[in-house]
Amino acid sequence: MYHLSKLKNGVTLITVPVKGTKATTVLAMFPVGSRYEENKLSGASHFVEHMLFKGTEKRPTALDISRALESVGADYNAFTYKDYTGYYIKIDSTKQELAFDVLSDMFYHSRFDKDEIEREKGVIVEELRMYEDNPTMAVDMLFDHIIFKEHPLGRDIGGTSETVRSFGRDDLFGYYQSHYTPHSMVLVVAGNISSSKIRNHFKYFERDSAPKVKEKISYTENYQKFVYPTRPPSIEERIAVKERKVDQAHVIIGFPGLAHRDPRRFADALLLTILGGGMSSRLFVEVREKRGLAYMIRSGSSGHRDTGAAYVQAGLDPARLHEAVKVIQEELRKTAMQGVTEQEVKEAKDHIIGRMALSAEDSSTQAEWFAKQFLFMSKIETMEEVAKKLKKVTARDIQRLAGQIFDPDQTRLAIIGPVKKEEVVEMLR
Q1: Of these residues, 37, 38, 49, 384, which one is catalytic?
Q2: Where in the sequence is the domain holding 108, given as residue range(s)?
Q3: Counted domains in the chain
């Protein structure tokens, strides 16, 4: 069972004991990401993430930080998304004090050295180019843009090469000071935490040198909200195509979806599992096994505080693109019109609950689960509590949701491949 408390400087602390592991994960997450950035600061959240690994007063260089952690075999990394940024260290529990020391040092004493910032600009620009050169990743960004348009949710999390190169130290350090405050941090310690000494390790995050701001930012209110247009956009506005000479057409077919707290989210998880959650799913069988139209096909969703999206993603033979899209559309239509079977519902529930059971053995997965639950849900729900709610969903609930989501007039289509937009538009008419 987890325990929720506050450190004396305002940091939210969640401790999650995990039986049978020798690892401890220390994860700090902040409710800020690319959607909170002004246009001119597009990519700042991601850039700050990089800079926190580039040296502190105690560990002046990136090598000092990496050597301290790698010398004990620790796993460590960070991730920036549209609504949050997280940093974690997973370490042998007998060395756990080092994780508290290094992570807190990064948050409270990072140097933001000017020369290091200039060097890192080149690194991040190359990272952006890497994603753009990978069509599987690039089609994700293309889909975000076609569904969220010019809204901050439609921007690349990493920004653009122009914005990245424009950042000065004051821009990044000011952004860091505004958002990396104790009251906005949720610190999760998961895994082998039975040691009597662990309470002494929390002192690392209670230091008085934490960044201070004049006023607290409300991350649940202080952002530009997104609302889908009630009148469906034209077909041309709902299609984005990047013509590129690649062997596969990389495709995402998507629809307006659900926000984090939407009560239908449990039915949504089951619906998308039935459609494309594994090798026995409807789309995998119809598109790959029966017709050989794709190697990879899957369905999923992305949620935010105020909105979300549901999607099907596939890598397809460009010569059979039309056929494949029609098969996918027909399967979505059938699900909405005819529903799903009781057997499919049972198997989907068992699949999701089984996957959660496996992930619960990993301290880093547990840490991320509880951090997101705290930041985005009205109250923390354990995996066991979520499993109980999944079990209550009926086949009728799933069909009703399919009818609401899979509206043909709301279909968005993003494609990267050797095809022209005019061909795709005609294909969907």
Answers
A1: 49
A2: 3-205
A3: 2
